[in-house]
Amino acid sequence: MESSSRRNEESYAHQQQDSNMLKPVANQVAGHQAGAGQIGPLVDGTGKFYKPLQKGERGERELQFYKQFFADHSVPDEVKASLPWFYGTANIESCDGSGPYDYLILEDLTHNFHHPAVMDIKMGKRTWYPGAREKYIQKCLEKDKETTSTAIGFRISGMQVYDATHRNLWKPDRNWCKQLSPDTIKAALKYFISSNPGSKECPDKALASIVYGSIKGIIHQLLELKKWFEQQTQYHFYSSSILFIYECDPPCSNLGGETIHSPLQLVPLVKMIDFAHVLVGQNCLDENFLEGLKSLICYLTQVVKESLIAS
Questions:
Q1: Which of 27, 81, 250, 260 pairs as cysteine with 265 (C-beta 3.0–4.6 A)?
Q2: What count of other Cβ atoms lies within 10 Å of the Cβ of residue 173?
Q3: How confident is residue 310, by pLDDT bands cut at 50, 70 and 90?
Q4: CA dihedral of residues 24, 30, 36, 41 (deg, nearest 10)
């Protein structure tokens, strides 16, 4: 694992980037997408992800958060590793013809994956931050209530799963995710680790014990993150998300006619993203994020238990 000191040694210089080397993100499952004259995230094919820096205080807050967080010696290295690597900023000609635009340069989390499964989970019962404008608060309140955020402390913003058997990608649209309820969200969590994603049949939960329940699985990583949230009082993460990523189509070996995937090839990534609404210096626990984290762990644990019973 790279130490935080090496991250701190990175030059956060503002760079000029050739837009012809960049392309829209193929594995993006939530948020605004680049293209059709719209500004959105880009990748350069070398492992770097370019996120548009929002105008005004939101963009400034996210940029300052990345700089401060990786320089904060009170944050354990393993917690810093749960965020994308931060390289600095770049100035890129906008695809909408409006001129140059500033971007955060981050780690492209799916760069080393062949066919990644990706799930974007927005955390917290409330996604608005103290001090936000009333119009923004009302917008967030409405979305939190009409999704699962208010009820269970998190919501699925988007997901994709590659069906290696039929060689196709299942990527439900935003409306499908938006309509998930506390009763149906568990099915979505099951489809994420099934070999029959999106089928009319019940999800088979084929990879639940490996992706969710193994010693290096998602639940274990979330539990480690929870330990930090149960102690830290500096940062409050409003409207931030957690990404789950794993390889749907890893290299395999054939032993006695049976296809075998190495567990190491299925080790998932758990990464926190989106920090435009992080508040610093709060001097109390981030109960909003923490309660959502506990709820998510509980749901995932239930999925693993059901998969073991079924097997």
A1: 250
A2: 8
A3: confident
A4: -40
